[in-house]
Design a protein that fits this description.
The protein is of the alpha+beta class and 210 residues long. The protein has five helices and nine strands; from the N terminus they run ααββββαβββββαα. The chain has a seven-stranded mixed beta sheet with strand order 1-9-3-4-6-7-2, covered by helices on one side.
Length: 210
């Protein structure tokens, strides 16, 4: 569902006229802001299947720092694999990396085994790669705020619509029917149902091991 379609779904629930573009008038712009707020909350609520992606990094010999293209501070790493060597990389803390690189000239080179974030989208590797390897970062990559009418939602649309409607109803004080509190309750229930359905695709992630 597109940004414009989401905004119109909310407008209809508020008994307002649909628009041909999100920026058509001040009220449609406001609803667009609520759609983005709702989208952000829904995206943060679960590691949705629609947000899962793979970022590829091709290493170079003697280079230990790389940039994950399209990543920002909303990214979540699920796992990292060295596709060239058929092995997994393990996470280490920034402090661990600082200690490992204290004597930089003597840092070992070879097949990288560990990674750590350096900044928002920078990744450090250890040992320093001694050749070209293809690393695959399986991630949850949450999308930025919508700006264009044609921007497409990749998480379930119903929780976003319901939550944006509740936000709009709270702002103007009435909807001609359900109260804002009731609408928020509906949004919470809809979100819980959507998470349960998506979690069924990854049942291993809902099991807790002591």
């Amino acid at each position: 569902m597109t940004y414009l379609q989401l905004v119109n779904k909310v407008l209809v629930r508020l008994r307002e006229n649909e628009v041909s573009t999100v920026s058509e008038n001040n009220y449609s712009k406001l609803i667009g802001e609520y759609v983005n707020d709702a989208k952000r909350d829904v995206q943060n609520a679960w590691d949705w299947t629609g947000l899962r992606n793979t970022l590829t990094v091709d290493t170079q010999a003697n280079v230990f720092n790389y940039v994950l293209t399209d990543a920002d501070n909303t990214i979540k790493i699920l796992d990292v694999t060295n596709d060239s060597q058929n092995c997994f990389l393990r996470y280490q803390t920034s402090r661990w990396f600082d200690e490992a690189f204290l004597d930089f000239p003597s840092v070992p080179k070879g097949t990288t085994q560990f990674y750590s974030f350096n900044g928002i989208n920078g990744v450090d590797l250890y040992p320093i790669p001694d050749a070209e390897y293809t690393l695959r970062f399986n991630v949850v990559l949450r999308t930025k705020d919508f700006t264009a009418d044609t921007d497409v939602l990749t998480v379930p649309s119903t929780p976003v619509i319901q939550l944006a409607t509740a936000m709009a109803a709270r702002e103007r004080g009435e909807t001609g029917g359900a109260s804002a509190a009731e609408l928020f309750a509906i949004a919470d229930s809809t979100l819980a149902d959507a998470i349960a359905m998506d979690a069924a695709l990854h049942p291993e992630e809902t099991i807790w091991y002591s």
